[in-house]
């Protein structure tokens, strides 16, 4: 199987990772609610980290409901998606530093890390939306973060929800084109 054929098969059978993106919408919605609570920012950050523990089981559940294959046993590139996802954990020391030293910016750091980690999925799924949205998410979050005061940090996760919904729409359109072409 040639490379472009593998990437196309990953894109169609995995539905461009939409199950994982929908899970992210749920997680960032939870984080928005957390940041609307009248508790200290440090506590909000801890709850934010805990909420991410839902990501993998929720992604598997949503992918199952969507009938999206994320295991890819028959495609040599299949495990690359998981490695790309785990790679973002390498940036977590930056996030931990922010939580300890400057809790008010931790959610901004986290949002930028999450947004930026989608860039290589553009190559994996051969989906331009990831190439466009990854840097756009990072720049939008940085810009919103530059003009926020601590009392409005909930805008960061809310922006992530909106940006994820846009990304989902774009990768869904890409998936439908590839699916229709394949069938």
Automatic annotation (TrEMBL):
The lineage of its organism: Bacteria, Bacillati, Bacillota, Bacilli, Bacillales. Keywords: Membrane, Transmembrane, Transmembrane helix. The chain crosses the membrane at residues 20-39, 45-68, 80-99, 105-123, 130-148, 154-173. Pfam families: DUF7010. The keyword DNA repair does not apply. This is EamA domain-containing protein. The keyword Nucleotidyltransferase does not apply.
């Amino acid at each position: 199987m040639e490379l472009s054929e593998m990437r196309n098969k990953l894109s169609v059978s995995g539905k461009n990772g939409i199950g994982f993106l929908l899970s992210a919408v749920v997680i960032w919605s939870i984080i928005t609610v957390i940041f609307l609570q009248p508790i200290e920012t440090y506590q909000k950050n801890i709850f934010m980290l805990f909420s991410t523990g839902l990501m993998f089981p929720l992604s598997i559940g949503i992918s199952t409901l969507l009938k999206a294959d994320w295991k890819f046993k028959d495609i040599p590139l299949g495990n690359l998606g998981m490695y790309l996802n785990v790679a973002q954990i390498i940036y977590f020391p930056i996030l931990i530093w922010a939580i300890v030293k400057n809790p008010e910016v931790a959610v901004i750091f986290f949002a930028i890390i999450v947004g930026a980690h989608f860039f290589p999925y553009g190559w994996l799924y051969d989906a331009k939306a990831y190439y466009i949205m990854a840097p756009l998410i990072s720049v939008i979050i940085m810009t919103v973060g530059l003009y926020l005061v601590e009392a409005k940090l909930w805008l960061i996760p809310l922006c992530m929800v909106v940006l994820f919904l846009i990304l989902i729409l774009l990768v869904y359109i890409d998936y439908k084109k590839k699916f229709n072409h394949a069938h």
